[in-house]
Amino acid sequence: MISSASNGGTQVAMSTFARTAFGHASYASFRPTYSPSLFRTILAYHNERGGHGTALDMGCGHGIMARELAPHFDTVHAIDPAAGMVEQARTLLNSILNIHVRQAGSEDLSFLPDDSVDLVVAGQAAHWFDFGRAWPELARVVRSGGSLAFAGYKDHVLVGHPEASEAFRAFSYGEGEVAPGIEGMGRFWEFPGRGILRDSYAAIQPPASEWEGVRRLAWDPDAGAAAAAGVEGVPQEVLWQRHAMTLGQLEGYVRTYSAYSNWREAHPQRRRRAEGGEGDVVDAMFDAVVDAVPAWRVRGEAWRDVEVDAVWGSVILLARRR
User: Fold this and answer.
1) Counting C-beta atoms within 10 Å of the first and last residue's C-beta, which end of the chain has fewer, N or C?
2) 217: left (phi > 0), else alpha (psi -120 to 50), else beta?
3) Where are the domains of the chain?
4) pTM (2 decimals)?
5) DSSP string, 69-112
6) Across the strands, what pairs with 212?
7) Residue 289 CB-half CA count within 13 A
8) With 0-12 CB in 10 A as exposed, 13-18 as middle and 19+ as buried, what is 188?
9) DSSP 190-223
10) Residue 309 β-bridge partners
11) Is 299 exposed, middle or buried (0-12, 13-18, 19+ CB in 10 A)?
C-alpha cells in the first residue's frame, strides 16, 4: 500500500491536469487509445465470476475506458477530479446513455451506495490515487466477487529505431542541458506517481484482507533491444499499447506530457516554433529523433509524415473483492 507520505505527490500531479492552462482538448486528441486486447483481458478476468451490472471508471480522463466498457454493463460511472477532463468526457460521451460522468476523485465515492459496483477500472490514473483513502472507499462500494483492473502505460520505443528511442529517453528524463540552452524534462515529472508507473505499479498492493486473486501483468521493453529487434513473441495481453502512427502524431502526444506542461511554465521564453518562437524542448527532442535516422532526416520539413511503429511498456493490475 502507498503510504500517506505519497499524498503530497498526488496533489501536485492532479493540480497539473486540473489547471485551466492544461491542454485538455489536446490530451483527448493525441493520447493513444487502448487496443481491444486490454479490454479482452479485463473482461475475461471479470467474467470468471460472472456478472456485469455497474462499472466505475476512476480518473476517466476523456473517457476511453468508460466508452469501451459501456456495451458490457448496464451502467458506467466515469469520474475525474479535473474539471477540464470532465468537460471533455461529457462532450465525447454524451451520446452514450448508460455512462454517467461527474467530477470526483477516487478518495471520495460517497455518491455510490455500498456494494453497488461490479467492476472498477482506472486507465493511466491509479498511480495518482491516495490509496490510504481510496482502498476503504473501494472496499465499501465494490461487491463481494467484484473485480478491479488498473491499467497503465509508460515510456515508448520505436520498433526498429533504437537511436531515435534513446533520443526520446534523453530529452524526457534528462536533468540539465539536453540541447544548447534547453533543459530536459527530467525534473518536471510529478512524483511519486511517475515512479510508481515506471515500476509497473509494484507499490500498489490491494489489501489482502479485502482483495484476492491478484494478478500483475507487466511488460517493460528495454529501449535498445525492443527498438532494434522488434516485439515478436511478446504476449498480446501485455502488448496492448502499440500503434502505427506518424512522427507528427507522436509529437502531439509528447506535448500532452504533464512534464512538458510543467516545463513550459518554467520556461515561458522558449516558445514553440509553431508559435513563431525559436523552439522548445519538444522541438529540440524531435530534431534529435529525426537526426538519428538518415532516411527521416532527408525528408526535411516532411518528417512529420513519417510512419513509425510505437510500443509502450505496460501494466495491468487485477484483483477480486473477497
Assistant:
1) N
2) beta
3) 4-321
4) 0.89
5) HGGG-SEEEEEES-HHHHHHHHHHHTT-TTEEEEE--TT--TTS
6) 320
7) 24
8) buried
9) -TTHHHHHHTTTTT----TTTEEEEEEEEE---H
10) 244
11) middle
What pLDDT score does 48 carry? 83
Written as nine digits, the cell of 193 is: 506517481
Per-residue model confidence (pLDDT) at position 16: 56
Residues 62, 28: contact at Cβ < 8 Å?
A: yes
Kind and range of the H or E run holding 37: helix 36-46
The number of beta carbons lying within 10 Å of the beta carbon of residue 259 is 20
Cβ neighbourhood burial of 150 (10 Å; 0-12, 13-18, 19+): buried
The CATH topology of domain 4-321 is Rossmann fold (3.40.50)
What DSSP letter does each residue of 293-312 carry, written as one string? SHHHHTTGGGGGG-EEEEEE
- Provide the CB-side half-sphere exposure for 288 (13 A, CA): 22
Residue with cell 539536453: 178
| Interstrand relation of 99-103 and 211-219 (parallel, antiparallel or unpaired) | unpaired
